[in-house]
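Lab manual, section 2.4: Encoding a predicted structure.

Procedure: take the sequence of the chain (285 residues), apply the prediction step described in section 2.3, and record the output as structure tokens. A sample record is shown.
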Amino acid sequence: MNSKSLISFLFMLAAALSAAAQAQTLDKIRKQGAITLGYIDGAAPFSYADPNGDPQGYSVELCRAIAEGIAAQLERPQLKTRWVKLSIQNRIDAVRRRQVDVECSTTTWTLGRQRLVDFSLVTFLDGASILTKLDTDARRIADFGGKRIAVIGGTTTETALRQALTKSLVNAEVVGIKTRDEGLELLRQGQVDGVASDRTTLIGLVVKKAAGGDAYKLLDEDFSIEQYALMLPRGDPDFRLAVNRVLARLYRSGDIRRVYDRWLGPLGAPSPLLSATFFIQGLAE
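Recorded output:
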């Protein structure tokens, strides 16, 4: 084989391997007769386990719609859905290792993360804030000088919090935690002065733990914007297209408002920015 033939063969081999990689998730789902979805407990109202241990929430419902849509695309009406409980710490690896086909929670789409995994269309917009006790004077991040703020380590919220503190010249101690529930308990005990996370999940956390009797408030300002999207395996555009086809139809038809109202309606109507996000992403077939 001469050098030109060898180069041509290598290009053909690379193209074949690329095509195989692109089709692997849909092929796996078709062969196994099941799609595997990951969720995180404790991220209400986006993803959590109900008293029966069943996944529920806004992001979970979107993933159920995706499972139905992919079943229709593959012409497999009996396609099963398998749910895998994940944590904030292992969710990216679970997608990278293809232990789940889609991660259905509150993951923020960042360029750094896109080096490791892929993302669907944006599913929600939120802002990071700080939860504190109602009787404190803190209203802005600038009021936390000399105080302690709990935040889940390794998240985009932690990075944004540190940047906001530096920008505002606020000397506050950042306390690493593993779950929002842990942060709320530290706040309740007075071991920290605030818990930083996405605004909507903090509201969901307080609603879930309302029986504690304590009163809380959020700051008047957000210190970051969080664009949620569903994590997908990287390097598989066919699967990403199949997922986005379902989401675009939800946005285009307006059915996304029904999903929103079910899980987030008590918090008020979608913001103008979120409504615009849905409208723009209602891509035509």
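Check your result against the sample. Residues 13-22 have pLDDT under 50 and may be disordered.
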